[in-house]
Amino acid sequence: AAAAGSGGRADNGYGSQPPRRRRGPGALATAYLVLYNVVMTAGWLVIAVGLVRAYLAKGSYHSLYYSIEKPLKFFQTGALLEVGKYLLGIVPSSVVLTAFQVMSRVFLTWAVTHSVKEVQSEDSVLLFVVAWTITEIIRYSFYTFSLLNHLPYLIRWARYTLFIVLYPMGVTGELLTIYAALPFVRQSGLYSISLPNKYNFSFDYYTFLILVMISYIPIFPQLYFHMLHQRRKVLSHAEGHKKSE
């Protein structure tokens, strides 16, 4: 679940290593990937503009979630298509890692924020939404320009630098939002299944959410230090390449 951490998605796809692709995707696959990343970049820009407009109109940052709820759900759920790219081998990366990272954000979007309406006005929601938005605009722009072989250094730098702040910011917002949801989940019994029933199976969603929060403890440092390692490798490679030109 810590992979939901904004800004710190373990690097995958075209940007995980300095350009060392064995065999790039074919022309049709490349066209699809470019289109997908352009659409996703535009979608997250719409969310960013929506946040700014709502803030200017209200004069307050409280409860801005409602102004971008629909596009956020749409484009965050649209990230599920990323799993398909890896399953089909269009982009070389770990299917399991990608699925885990995407599903964790979709889970927070639908199973927590959407399902527990009482938390939607929490400032912690805005915290992870802002972190996700900045991260995704940079990430999808990075992928688009990488596919077109015209990656500006500024975007590369932002991709491997801003996560230092955005990842902890997003994770903090996610954890605080799950924590805020706990009393409402316990009171309502949301998504919980109690015995007896014909399947002889029980499930306590309240306990599950606590386990999700605990899972951040081992996963967050691992992904964060992985990204720091990638930053050193990618940016040092880029600097060396610029000097050699």
TrEMBL record:
Its UniProt entry gives the catalysed reaction(s) as: a very-long-chain (3R)-3-hydroxyacyl-CoA = a very-long-chain (2E)-enoyl-CoA + H2O; (3R)-hydroxyhexadecanoyl-CoA = (2E)-hexadecenoyl-CoA + H2O
**The UniProt record lists the keyword Endoplasmic reticulum:** yes
Any one GO cellular component localisation term in the record: endoplasmic reticulum membrane
Record GO terms (molecular function): very-long-chain (3R)-3-hydroxyacyl-CoA dehydratase activity
Q: Does the keyword Lipid metabolism apply?
A: yes
Region Disordered, as annotated, extends over 1-23
Q: Where in the cell is it found?
A: Endoplasmic reticulum membrane; Membrane
Which InterPro entries does UniProt cross-reference here? Answer: Tyr_Pase-like_PTPLA
Which keywords annotate this record? Endoplasmic reticulum, Fatty acid biosynthesis, Fatty acid metabolism, Lipid biosynthesis, Lipid metabolism, Lyase, Membrane, Transmembrane, Transmembrane helix
Q: Copy the pathway line from the protein's UniProt record.
A: Lipid metabolism; fatty acid biosynthesis
Q: Where is the composition biased (Gly residues)?
A: 1-10
Q: Pfam families given for it?
A: PTPLA
Q: How does it sit in the membrane?
A: Multi-pass membrane protein
Q: Which GO terms describe its biological process?
A: fatty acid elongation; sphingolipid biosynthetic process; very long-chain fatty acid biosynthetic process
- Top EC class for this record: lyase
- Superkingdom classification of source: Eukaryota
Q: What is its EC number?
A: 4.2.1.134
The record's function comment reads: Catalyzes the third of the four reactions of the long-chain fatty acids elongation cycle. This endoplasmic reticulum-bound enzymatic process, allows the addition of two carbons to the chain of long- and very long-chain fatty acids/VLCFAs per cycle. This enzyme catalyzes the dehydration of the 3-hydroxyacyl-CoA intermediate into trans-2,3-enoyl-CoA, within each cycle of fatty acid elongation. Thereby, it participates to the production of VLCFAs of different chain lengths that are involved in multiple biological processes as precursors of membrane lipids and lipid mediators.
Q: Which family does it belong to?
A: Belongs to the very long-chain fatty acids dehydratase HACD family.
Q: What is this protein called?
A: Very-long-chain (3R)-3-hydroxyacyl-CoA dehydratase
